[in-house]
Write a structure and sequence with these properties.
Layout: H1 17-28, E1 40-44, E2 48-53, H2 67-86, E3 89-95, E4 104-113, H3 118-129, H4 146-156, E5 160-164, H5 167-185, H6 188-197, E6 198-199, E7 208-209, H7 223-229, H8 233-245, E8 249-255, H9 260-279, E9 283-286, H10 294-304, E10 309-317
Helix pairs in contact: 1-2, 2-3, 2-9, 3-9, 4-9, 5-8, 5-10, 6-7
This protein binds flavin mononucleotide.
């Protein structure tokens, strides 16, 4: 797989702010996004970077309001912040700076030089080490203080996080996940959208490798057709039920309200949580299906006993390393190509 490679040694420490911002994009794009759509665009200014939603990459069936799309851009924004701090720069972020331009999700201003803290270093190194890990986790419990640290990471970004350690509530959540899988797969529009983002051949720079859907190599070429044609909902539900009940921790992240600003905050909180977990060698994967079905989303909040709007459901635990997912080059995501080499 052609994961995007970047070396921190190449940061243009003495370059123009615009070159530094362009370099930071190498880290922004390592954020997670549903179906690996990478739904963001960037415009580089003299000392600032504008983050836009790329709605051509929206998932109209599974994410009709672009909630998850906006959340993913929030996660990319968090990576920008961590990378700026690691390379020793202050920054300032404006969320949704222009009400007349809803696609402009954030403006990121690069500031003066500043000291790098120890936490920045740890979080920064976790950016390239974080991959969605869809394999079963070991039964080993998580470090006792990790739950609290993840909660405070989410709180610092304006979100809440509830870890659900008890077996009974985990079982109910697992049932909601399985129910959501069955409902989604029963919808041919869901299957068609999924098939559009499944990549049968190695070398793709976005989307999900077909093998991640349990399709064997010899069937890979027919993978998108298989996914589109057959309702594999029962199989997916059984697999996800098993994963959810046997992970040492399920964590629900949410916000008090449910506006694009909340989604951007939830995305930053998500990435803060995922990177913090990774600093402790803890892996995560997403079980967001019940949050993508409106009735089940409300039910999920009730089960966890939290008021507000659940945004992401995660499974956390220890396990073998997961392979990196592919990425497009940041140059493909620039709204205006910059021209180098002229005076
Ligand atoms: C909001 C959101 C929802 C997601 N939902 C799922 C999911 O239901 N199933 C899944 O396997 N991965 C899910 N993912 C993970 C993406 O597939 C993954 O982030 C993407 O393929 C990029 O891979 P990486 O996270 O390893 O960098 C989700 C990611 C986000 C941000």
């Amino acid at each position: 797989m052609n994961a995007w490679h970047v070396s921190a040694d190449d940061f243009p420490a003495d370059g123009y702010a615009s070159d530094q911002l362009e370099f930071l994009l190498n880290y922004a794009i390592l954020a997670p996004s549903n179906h690996n759509t990478q739904p963001w665009l960037f415009r580089i200014g003299v000392t600032d970077l504008a983050v836009y939603a790329d709605r051509r990459r929206a998932l109209r069936v599974v994410d009709p309001l672009d909630r998850e799309l906006t959340l993913s851009a929030g996660a990319a924004l968090f990576n920008l912040r961590v990378a700026a701090e690691y390379f020793g720069h202050e920054y300032r972020v404006e969320l949704l700076p222009d009400p007349t331009e809803p696609n402009l999700l954030a403006r990121f201003h690069l500031g003066l030089r500043a000291d790098t803290g120890a936490e920045d270093v740890l979080l920064f190194h976790a950016i390239t080490r974080r991959h969605t890990n869809r394999q079963p986790f070991l039964p080993d419990p998580l470090p006792p203080d990790l739950g609290e640290r993840l909660q405070s990471a989410a709180a610092r970004e304006g979100a809440w996080l509830v870890c659900v350690p008890e077996e009974e509530r985990r079982r109910v959540l697992a049932e909601l996940i399985a129910e959501a899988d069955r409902r989604q797969w029963a919808d041919p529009h869901f299957r068609r959208e999924l098939a559009q983002w499944v990549r049968p051949k190695p070398g793709a720079t976005d989307g999900i490798p077909v093998q991640d859907y349990g399709i064997q190599d010899w069937l890979a070429a027919a993978g998108p057709l298989i996914l589109r044609t057959f309702n594999r909902g029962d199989g997916q539900a059984a697999r996800d039920h098993e994963l959810a009940t046997h992970s040492p921790c399920l964590a629900l992240l949410g916000t008090a309200a449910d506006t694009p600003r909340d989604w951007l905050q939830a995305g930053q909180a998500l990435q803060h949580v995922l990177l913090t977990a990774r600093t402790e060698e803890v892996h995560a994967s997403f079980l967001c299906q019940p949050l993508e079905v409106p009735e089940l989303r409300a039910r999920t909040a009730e089960v966890v006993g939290q008021s507000g709007y659940p945004q992401v459901l995660l499974r956390l635990g220890y396990g073998p390393e997961a392979p990196p997912a592919p990425r497009r080059s940041p140059r493909e995501m620039l709204l205006i190509q910059r021209h180098h080499g002229h005076a």
